[in-house]
């Protein structure tokens, strides 16, 4: 009786790798030569991080930070959730309630802290004068349905995938694997 391994597929391409190292350590080295070494996050990413939905104003966001500091809790990161958006539009900030957020971010950095902005991968398609969507349309950066598919939410002549996320209207999804998207 010989040991056997059988794979049956219904199609597609199957890449199989055998790692025949003489020791477990050698097998791990061979495996890493195929997939690469794992990413190690920066040190600050392991620290205390403050985030919540519901900061209506920058003053409320700052108050949460100061309560944390006054409680002698070391903090490394403060997040801005979607509250800081202008009308919940990605890549914007509310010019009234969060108008001084650039200065607050500078203050955090000067005090050794980071600021991370939440971004939803959904761009409003119906907002007026929204340059993010307009420029995305010009560069054709949206995720698309495959050819000849029953297109859910399909109301245009293109194959752009539409859905609903935070904005009230339909949203399009940038294809971050398409290089012009990061431009």
Automatic annotation (TrEMBL):
Q: Where is the Glycoside hydrolase family 31 TIM barrel domain?
A: 38-181
For this protein, the record's SUPFAM superfamilies field holds: (Trans)glycosidases
Q: Name one GO biological process term.
A: carbohydrate metabolic process
Gene3D superfamilies given in the database record:
Glycosidases, glycosyl hydrolase (family 31)
UniProt xrefs under InterPro entries? GH, Glyco_hydro_31_TIM
GO molecular function, a single term? alpha-1,4-glucosidase activity
Return any one Pfam family short name. Glyco_hydro_31_2nd
Q: Which domain of life is it from?
A: Eukaryota
UniProt keyword annotations, A-Z = Glycosidase, Hydrolase
Q: What family does the database annotate?
A: Belongs to the glycosyl hydrolase 31 family.
Q: Which PANTHER family match?
A: ALPHA-GLUCOSIDASE, P-TYPE DOMAIN-CONTAINING PROTEIN
The identity of this protein, by name, is Glycoside hydrolase family 31 TIM barrel domain-containing protein
């Amino acid at each position: 009786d010989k040991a056997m391994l059988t794979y049956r597929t219904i199609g597609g391409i199957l890449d199989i790798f055998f790692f025949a190292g003489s020791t477990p350590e050698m097998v791990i080295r061979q495996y890493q030569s195929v997939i690469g070494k794992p990413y190690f996050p920066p040190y600050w990413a392991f620290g205390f991080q403050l985030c919540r939905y519901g900061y209506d104003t920058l003053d409320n966001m700052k108050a949460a930070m100061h309560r944390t500091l006054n409680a002698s809790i070391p903090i490394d990161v403060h997040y801005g959730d979607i509250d800081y958006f202008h009308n919940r539009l990605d890549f914007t900030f509310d010019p009234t309630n969060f108008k001084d957020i650039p200065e607050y971010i500078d203050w955090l950095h000067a005090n050794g802290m980071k600021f991370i902005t939440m971004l939803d991968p959904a761009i409003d398609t119906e907002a007026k004068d929204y340059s993010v969507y307009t420029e995305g349309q010009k560069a054709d950066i949206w995720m698309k349905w495959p050819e000849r598919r029953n297109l859910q939410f399909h109301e245009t002549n293109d194959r752009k995938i539409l859905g609903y996320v935070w904005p009230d209207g339909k949203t399009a999804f940038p294809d971050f694997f398409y290089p012009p998207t990061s431009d």
